[in-house]
Amino acid sequence: MLNRRTVLSTAALASVPLALPEFALAQGRKDAIVLAMALEPVGMDPTAAAASSIAEVTLYNIYETLTKVNSDGTVSPLLAESWEISPDLRTYTFRLRKGVKFQNGEPFNAQAVKFSFQRAGAEKSTNKDKRTFASMESVAAIDEHTVVVINKELDPDFLFLMGQATAIIVEPKSADTNATKPVGTGPYKLENWVKGSSATLTKWDGYRNAAAIKLKRATFRFIADPAAQVAALLAGDVDAFPRVTPRSVPQFKNNPKFQVVVSGSRAKTILAINNKKKPLDDVRVRRAIAAAIDRKAVIEGAGDGYGAPIGSHYVPGAFGYIDTTGVNPYNPEKAKALLKEAGITTPLELTITLPPPPYARQGGEVIAAMLAKVGIVAKLQNVEWAQWLSGTYGAKNYDLTIISHVEPFDLGNFAKPYYWNYESPKFNDLYNKYKTSPREADRKKLIGEIQKLVADDCVHAFLYQPQWVTVANKNIKGLWKDMPLFVNDLSSLSWS
């Protein structure tokens, strides 16, 4: 068992309906629950798009993976009962759980695992973690219940990655329609999805351990507007709101009807910079932007005080973390000097693209005011989630954007063509050495060098490691305390 702790919405709802039967259901019967999310998934297939909101609905509920990532960051068996690892950490032999079926009646077996991994690593794959699967030298189905994966390079985090949503095991015949008609091996099936409003999952009686699943029905409501989030909770229309806007917390902390859970994370909230757009291709300009930003004030303004400053794309508590907040510290005078040194005539006009989450919209206001003080005029452009995914992330059409990257092991994004357009042979070399070093001491040293390089290159203005707040009915049991992944694991939830 791996025992290391590891750890982007649709239009805001104008009003909160109060008397819909399905929402009242959770209050009347204790075998149903209503959860809320700020962002609506763009589909129901987490292997097809990068949005973490897909996994929030589907992972461990509809789809399952070989391993399961727990709240504390440990990894335990799920579809794989056990595994063996070769001494060079490249070969994994997975022993698969027997008697498991997909929700369309087809058997779960080694061939399904082989299909899923080869599909994820294929040339036309849009899987966010395509690199992980493309790095598999071979995937062999030894028999119905044994799979051997040989990786081209060792990956110390491989078992954790196999528990993420991008590693779900899909049924071959249903794979192409999973975005709208998801089929998995999990305890829940998608009953309906009312776009712009909610998605409802119902318990699948064919699940191998159906008797242990307490909740028969779960409705996910999509509520982007912070005020509507609070109203829905107070009205009792929502039973639990994981990762609710922190601004709501004070009015719930002293209310005996609710529980407030503050969770650690491995997320990085950043002011992402398009490294190929002039004049942002000049490291001095990027450093000027970073120097103009007071991270602690951003945490107060964007995260309502819930967070810790970061100076690179890595967070306190993670393996090999080093403090890089002193590399590009808050220094408005230095920011002005760097702009002058780079030949920039102020005012420099830039656009900050902001997706719907409150931390981005609130953070945009705070950061724009700071940038204005050093001669950078930042125009705030609010976009919906689908626009962000297609225009910013997909088409790389932006100057700056505020986003939270929630995956624990995502430094590899700096080594591939990604939306921020960073290219560094030095980074690639360091990262490859990290991925292929079997000794933990060597990997720890290399991960420190990687953090320092990303900070020195000022790829982004790194802001803070957020803490996520869950507000829920006091009678709900099984909520995750910490969040190494964005998951709503329904199988762990029940009413007291």
Please describe what this structure looks like.
- The protein is α+β, with helices and mostly antiparallel strands and 496 residues long.
- It has a domain of 199 residues: Dipeptide-binding Protein, domain 3 (Roll).
- The protein has 14 helices and 21 strands.
- A six-stranded mixed β-sheet has the order 14-18-13-17-15-16.
- The chain is globular.
Q: How would the blueprint of this fold be written?
A:
Blueprint: H1 21-28, E1 32-37, H2 52-58, E2 67-69, E3 75-77, E4 80-85, E5 91-96, H3 110-121, H4 130-134, E6 136-143, E7 146-151, H5 158-161, E8 188-194, E9 198-203, E10 217-222, H6 226-235, E11 240-241, H7 250-253, E12 258-263, E13 268-273, H8 283-291, H9 295-303, E14 307-309, H10 332-341, E15 348-354, H11 358-372, E16 376-382, H12 385-394, E17 400-405, H13 425-436, H14 440-456, E18 461-466, E19 468-473, E20 476-477, E21 494-495
Parallel strand pairs: 1-10, 15-16, 15-17
Antiparallel strand pairs: 2-3, 4-5, 5-7, 6-7, 8-9, 9-10, 11-19, 12-19, 13-17, 13-18, 14-18, 20-21
